TrEMBL record:
Organism field: Physcomitrium patens
UniProt keyword list: Ubl conjugation pathway
Source lineage: Eukaryota, Viridiplantae, Streptophyta, Embryophyta, Bryophyta
Protein's UniProt name: NPH3 domain-containing protein
Statement: the UniProt record of this protein carries the keyword Nucleotidyltransferase: no
Record domain NPH3: where: 215-480
Signal peptide (UniProt feature, chain positions): none
């Protein structure tokens, strides 16, 4: 005697075998031999089908059963098969990969019980933890049904809530004590982790999602009540935490951009409206600006991100202008806030790696405020000078930018020019294309009297630095003062200083001669343009004028000297300083006049 089978068993058997089938359902080319009774019992779609052949219902030629064609069914064959099985009281085989397909098919077929079961599975296995939501969205393929909006909205809500909770509950934003470098891997929910590790992992995973999800979650986080200024003030290792997040954990420039934009917007949203603006949060402000400054030049190629729409896998290239425009805007706001509060920083400005343009913006904002003291201005100028040496060593600054940064401060802001002198030396040595004119502009920034004795000695042995007339005149004055202090009996020392005077005088005459020739050439060109060569200056007049000027300077220096009366035969025939200076000037004047006559003769020959 055959074993009696219950209703459940019988339904499962006829579903598997297709016996007693009275309807054939065709879904995207695949046929299912089914039964109208269980289908109409569960599905509103099948209940609404016409019951007679006069309607849209067709008949299958092979079986003689009714034929139902379902075109473009959301969820496809896989979703339809699992949804139909539940009509036959078969336990659903939900997985994370197919549950959305089943839910989409069930909604289309108006299977309320199946839809409810699918959503319960999602709540238990996807929406129950943010890590599940991250993994699900990273691999989610859009179906083209209302289920897409439901799934994405729920996942984004879970992730946004988790982000707000992490930022709210964490005591301070700081680098984790036991930090493991490299990309963070998904950790099971039951595994314990520190608050900072959880926050780091969550933030990086959210910013690594496709743009359609990451942007929405970040906007929700920014609009929340989290005050990042309060959180970062309590942490003394914020910079290291940001470096670990942006440089090490983020595996793409797109993720780095989203992290930077998110944290910057959160910080700026709750920025204080009155001083002190940064207080103890300067690490956070400056670190974000530092990373923005480094990230912007890297946005050269399209950022590639992938996601699927309508069942087809697409590659979407996010235009770099999207990130550049927002990063530039955020960077400008950070520069303004930091620049106006440079004196409030709790550490040295030179500890950060700002580019020349960014540093110039900070200095300009600070100077424009006009609320600085001499001490604070001196400290900031010292930090900027160290930046200049670093830029020069890396050859990462132009001559114009270098000069602008030096001249941004008033002369009184620097008591010592040693660092600037070293930076100029380094810049000229690392920039082979630096012209002679640019070198002169750089050396003119140095105040000879603000150099330490050791650096001053090095500067006076630098022919390019020494060629400046004002420097040579100050050197002559200095040597004259030295000579006035030398004892007449100290012949060796006296001769040494006199030689210095001679060298400086010759150098001064040569430099003035060079500049005079340049002036004469410019005057000649100007005269040719106007057709008035007769307006050119008389070279003899120029020579006499220069000679009188330098004769006056050296006469003043000579008045401070004493006549040297030697007692050794070695220096008995040595002339006095006044005689040497006069001889040097006379020789220089004759040489200068000859130079000008030769130049004028050449000009006349060329005109003829």
């Amino acid at each position: 005697m055959a074993k009696k089978v219950g209703l459940n068993g019988w339904l499962q058997r006829v579903r598997e075998t297709g016996e007693h089938s009275d309807v054939v359902v065709r879904v995207t080319g695949e046929e299912f031999r089914l039964h109208m009774l269980p289908l109409r019992n569960e599905s509103g779609y099948f209940r609404d089908l016409p019951s007679s052949s006069n309607g849209i219902e067709q008949v299958d030629e092979k079986t003689g059963c009714k034929l139902v064609n379902i075109h473009h069914l959301p969820g496809g064959v896989e979703g339809f098969a699992i949804a139909v099985n539940m009509c036959y009281l078969i336990k659903p085989s939900f997985t994370v990969k197919n549950v959305a397909l089943v839910c989409a098919a069930a909604e289309f077929l108006a299977m309320e019980d199946v839809t409810e079961s699918a959503r319960k599975f999602m709540h238990s296995n996807i929406f129950s933890h943010w890590r599940y939501c991250v993994n699900y969205l990273q691999n989610y393929t859009r179906i083209g049904s209302p289920v897409d909006e439901y799934v994405e909205f729920r996942c984004q809500k879970v992730l946004a809530t988790a982000c707000v909770k992490c930022f709210t509950e964490i005591k301070h934003v700081s680098a984790p004590s036991a930090y493991i470098s490299g990309p963070l891997t998904a950790v099971p929910p039951k595994q314990s982790s520190s608050a900072c590790q959880t926050l780091t992992e969550l933030l990086v995973q959210v910013c690594s999602l496709p743009d359609i999800y990451a942007a929405e979650i970040i906007n929700t986080l920014v609009d929340s009540d989290v005050n990042l200024n309060l959180k970062c003030r309590q942490g003394r290792n914020v910079r290291r935490w940001l470096e670990s997040v942006i440089d090490d954990e983020c595996q793409s420039d797109k993720a780095r951009c989203y992290v930077l934009l998110c944290l910057s917007r959160m910080l700026l949203k709750n920025a204080p409206t009155k001083r002190p603006w940064m207080e103890l949060s300067s690490q956070y402000w400056c670190s974000l600006l530092e990373h923005a400054d480094q990230l912007l030049p890297l946005l050269g190629d399209p950022l590639k991100t992938e996601y699927s729409i309508g069942g087809s896998h697409l590659e979407v290239y996010r235009n770099h202008s999207y990130f550049k425009e927002r990063l530039i805007g955020v960077k400008a706001m950070l520069e303004e806030k930091i620049g106006e509060s440079l004196n409030e920083m709790d550490e040295y400005l030179r500890d950060y790696k700002f580019g020349p343009d960014t540093l110039m913006s900070l200095v300009e904002y600070y100077i424009s405020m006009g609320e600085y003291t001499e001490q604070s201005l001196e400290e900031i100028a010292g930090d900027v000078d160290r930046f200049l040496w670093f830029y020069a060593n890396e050859c990462s600054i132009s001559v114009d930018a270098f000069i602008s940064l030096v001249k941004a401060f008033p002369p009184s802001a620097r008591d010592c020019h040693d660092t600037i002198y070293g930076a100029i030396e380094k810049l000229i040595s690392t920039a082979p294309n630096c012209s002679a004119e640019e070198q002169q502009q750089l050396w003119s920034l140095i105040d000879h009297f603000k150099l330490s004795p050791s650096v001053n000695e090095r500067a006076l042995n630098n022919p390019v630095f020494l060629s400046q007339p004002e420097i040579l005149e100050s050197v002559l004055l200095h040597h004259s003062q030295e000579l006035a202090k030398v004892d007449d009996t100290d012949g060796r020392h006296l001769r040494h200083i006199m030689q210095k005077v001679i060298n400086a005088s010759l150098k001064l005459l040569e430099e003035n001669s060079r500049r005079s020739r340049e002036i004469l050439e410019l005057q000649r060109q100007y005269g040719e343009l106007l057709g008035c060569r007769s307006q050119m200056l008389n070279p003899e007049g120029i020579v006499d004028l220069l000679g009188k000027q330098h004769h006056s300077n050296l006469s003043q220096n000579s008045s401070l000297q004493r006549e040297s009366e030697t007692e050794e035969s070695e220096i008995s025939d040595s002339p006095s300083l006044a005689t040497v200076s006069s001889t040097v000037l006379g020789s220089g004047r004759r040489r200068l006049a000859e130079m000008f006559r030769d130049d004028m003769a050449d000009c006349s020959s060329a005109s003829c």
